[in-house]
Amino acid sequence: MKKIPHRLYLTEDQMPRQWFNLRSAMPEQPDPLIHPGTLQPLGVSDLAPIFCEELAKQELDGTTPHVDIPEEVLEVYKMYRPSPLIRAYELEKALGTPARIYYKFEGNNTSGSHKLNSAVAQAYYAKMQGLTGVTTETGAGQWGTALSEACSYFGLTCDVYMVKCSYEQKPFRKAVMGVFNASVTPSPSMTTEAGRKILAENPGTTGSLGCAISEAVEAAVQSGGKKRYVLGSVLNQVLLHQSIIGLESKLAMEQLGEYPDVVVGCSGGGSNLGGLIAPFMADKLQGVKNPRIVAVEPASCPSFTRGKYAYDFCDTGKVTPLARMYTLGSGFIPSANHAGGLRYHGMSPILSKLYHDGYMEAVSYKQSQVFEAAVLFAKRETILPAPESAHAIKGAIDEALKCKETGEAKTILFGLTGTGYFDMTAYESYLSGSMTDYVPTDEDLQKGFDSLPKIPQNKNI
Ligand SMILES: *Cc1c(COP(=O)(O)O)cnc(C)c1O
């Protein structure tokens, strides 16, 4: 067999010019977004006060298989894409596995993650609609950074509600967003009705993505039509934009004469995983190939592995539509000692449906196991991974170790979503031995499930 290079970069000309809509390949569609009051499916006009119109259309379009990437978006993509597909030779050696491990590296941009792929698209559509700016939430800060970059490029304002514990733990994230002129508010804040309510009920709260979403949505709705709310994960439109990851991966692997037996990705809200697997899952759904698809999540926020498949709010303040997804309940707030990211209570409705129908698997790991994998990876492959990405590394390592046991030379592809330079407090805590693991008890989880909406659709939960 010919020697496979360490890194494969597609050329600019080979970069896909269309996104791929995974829903178009699904035998059954995910359940629709519904209005929490009427319980009726939402149309574009219902979503238009919150979302940009083109994005609302993308959100609800389950049939168009390919969507042209606008020229202006492609121009920005070209500044940091195509991203490399890397063969993890050194990691393979360290593990002594016969498996061939590849990873798609999305950390080659200032946001340090894949999130820029959707931020650029969303900012572009907001600009085209004539809006003055957008509002959003950010947890660890990667999405806020990505969106700030995109907004500053297209000349839009960017109001970021940042989960309070991250705001305090990651001052440099704030500074990076400042470089791009974003305004960053720790959430929950006193600047919104939703924030004041959450603080009144829970004064000491360190915040959650769900709280920050409530605030950002409110800020958009109150802007007199000049701004819209944008979200960096979970939504169908975000998975659409992130399909560029999977499309490039598939193309690059084809050039190497490879096809993955297993595709592994970390899952917070599901955007990188949904994007990475899109073309491979389509092959699987259409019976062309049969790769295994594995989602990896933290044991402290186990939406797939211990959540319920139910209609739930996408936010804590219960101002968003209801989505049917694997969820821990919008009232669930992961333990503050969990530093590994992926803290969202819910999961992409597309991935939730695929998981529910048996097309993918999910595993969870404790954060100390994840950081152990991160450190091994950094030492062998020379990239310091984001803790989120390290979940996928851990998943891929375990798949490779299974191959070592069975002697099978499988091809493993995983998504390395970003770099961890802003997570050094977490690394320090791991290295000094002070990192603790937290796994919620069934009783802890029950409190979150009690917050699920009591509607007929959820009667079997
Ligand atoms: C946000 C983020 C994730 C998780 O989000 P998904 O929507 O599940 O992809 C994973 N890795 C990095 C580096 C991130 O910034």
Q: Can you describe what's shown?
A:
By secondary structure, the protein is of the alpha/beta class. It has 2 domains: 7-16 and 81-112 and 235-449, Rossmann fold (3-Layer(aba) Sandwich); 48-66 and 114-229, Rossmann fold (3-Layer(aba) Sandwich), CATH 3.40.50. It has helices spanning 44-47, 53-60, 71-80, 89-95, 116-128, 142-154, 164-169, 171-179, 193-201, 209-221, 236-255, 271-285, 303-306, 349-356, 367-381, 387-406, 424-431, 442-450; strands at 7-8, 18-20, 66-68, 85-87, 100-105, 133-138, 157-163, 183-187, 227-229, 262-266, 292-298, 308-313, 322-327, 361-365, 411-416. It has a 7-stranded mixed beta sheet with strand order 1-4-5-15-10-11-14, with helices on both faces. 57% of the residues are buried. Residues 113, 115, 142, 233, 266-273, 342, 386, 388-389, 417-418 line the site of pyridoxal-5'-phosphate.
Give the helices and strands, then pairings.
Elements: E1 7-8, E2 18-20, H1 44-47, H2 53-60, E3 66-68, H3 71-80, E4 85-87, H4 89-95, E5 100-105, H5 116-128, E6 133-138, H6 142-154, E7 157-163, H7 164-169, H8 171-179, E8 183-187, H9 193-201, H10 209-221, E9 227-229, H11 236-255, E10 262-266, H12 271-285, E11 292-298, H13 303-306, E12 308-313, E13 322-327, H14 349-356, E14 361-365, H15 367-381, H16 387-406, E15 411-416, H17 424-431, H18 442-450
Parallel strand pairs: 5-15, 6-7, 6-9, 7-8, 10-11, 10-15, 11-14
Antiparallel strand pairs: 1-4, 2-3, 4-5, 12-13
Helix pairs in contact: 3-5, 4-15, 5-6, 6-8, 9-10, 11-12, 15-16
Bound molecules: pyridoxal-5'-phosphate.
Residues 113, 115, 142, 233, 266-273, 342, 386, 388-389, 417-418 line the site of pyridoxal-5'-phosphate.
